[in-house]
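Consider the following input, taken from an annotated entry for Two-component system response regulator PilR (NtrC family) (Hydrogenophaga palleronii).
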Amino acid sequence: MTAPPIASVLVVDDEPDLRTLYELTLLREGHEVTSAPDLEQAREWLAQKHFDVLITDMRLPDGLGLELLRELAASQRTEKSIVITAHGSAENAVEALKLGAFDYLTKPVDLKQLRAAVTAALQSQRHPPAAMLDRTAAARHPDDRLNALALSSSPLPPAGVRSLQRIVGSAPSIVQIKSRIEKVATSMAPVLIMGESGTGKELVARAVHECSHRASGPFVAVNCGAIPENLIEAEFFGARKGAYTGATQDREGYFQAAKGGTLFLDEIGDLPIAMQAKLLRVIQERRVRPLGGVQESAVDVRLVSATHRDLSALVQTSQFRQDLFYRLNVIELRTPALRERREDLPDLARALMRRICKESGQPAPELSDRALSWLQTRALPGNVRELENLLQRALALSSGDAIEPSDFGDLESAPPDVPADTATQTLSAQPASSPDTSPPPVDIPNDLQTYLDEQERQVLLKALRECDYNRTAAAARLGLNLRQMRYRIQRLGLNISDDNDGA
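Applying the prediction step yields:
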């Protein structure tokens, strides 16, 4: 007995040999395949039935395959489209993705990639394949098929639901970005996340991954600005043994590590110009060659990038390649600054406090109305990251059951009823200190938070050593209680046993 088809696929190509090759490849996979040599025949098939996947060549005798994509979008059809473009035709590929294509393939088509693209397109659908629906609907009535399709839609995967819940807020900008994440997750199109530092760009990138059919695959996050330039190629593409001094064995790169999942390139604007050219080639060819290697291997990753910099301006000054920007910016998501959604601050502060306390194993204190009002007066140029740092500080300094404005410590802040910018003006109006009594620091650190953490770490270790690592005594020496001392030790990653609490 013949097994029922897995899915229904329409192949549109004007070259008979290629069309037959695609048909045979997909038939062997168990799919039901229909073919058409041009747009006219393809439209006739689409008018007669629903397909799960449409595979179309870009150039056809009577027009462009993009016309089919526009028509499918206008009719709100659910077919997933895969476009076949000529080798090196970057503009057509990007245009197809912007029109809603799930993916694209370049000629000559690798049949393994063709099979993988169809499988991924089917996995990305949130309803059963058409072939399955045809069998169930036929048992009732032919006209019931569209109803069955609508009723069979399933919700987001559990990981996707959780990831969207972690994006806290109900401001219009947050509602919009959550909606867009759900839509773009079912595609292979590259995503570029723009936004100021501290606005949660990695949180959005994880949500794109976890709402997609790749949620079970790896999510590999890379900070492009943190990799030494002489190692960046090996880090991205891998390296063979002996490729450079210290390469004692073969190692995989980020692209190989993210196979079947999502590669998140954070701070893409900091990528050196030489590496930008190599990254562009990998995106276009979907193949990588490890450093010191001779063979290329196919890569199967969804690319998501992020930056706080204005890439358009960097393109104008030749600091960022225009063609790479064009390839990365197929779908743009913008994370709003905290000042643009002040109504979300109370809910966001409470959610952050719960998370901080959960990570440190502490009960979460309440944030008093006065504390929330105080936070509303802050400019918070560091956005959510700055808000999180303020809450961590308040938690460490607090000794009561609720966080009050005084728990935020000596932060050059105004009282709750004075706007932060007014406080700044008041402070700047004070007479300057004499250079003899208040000398400026000799060196200004590049990363203030890291610098302050290191200073705090050294002070804590000195106090602990002088108190024979008795944490209660060291806390008293520093004017802290034991809970505050434990929190600081945990936050800074100091390896001090709880047995040393002492009396």
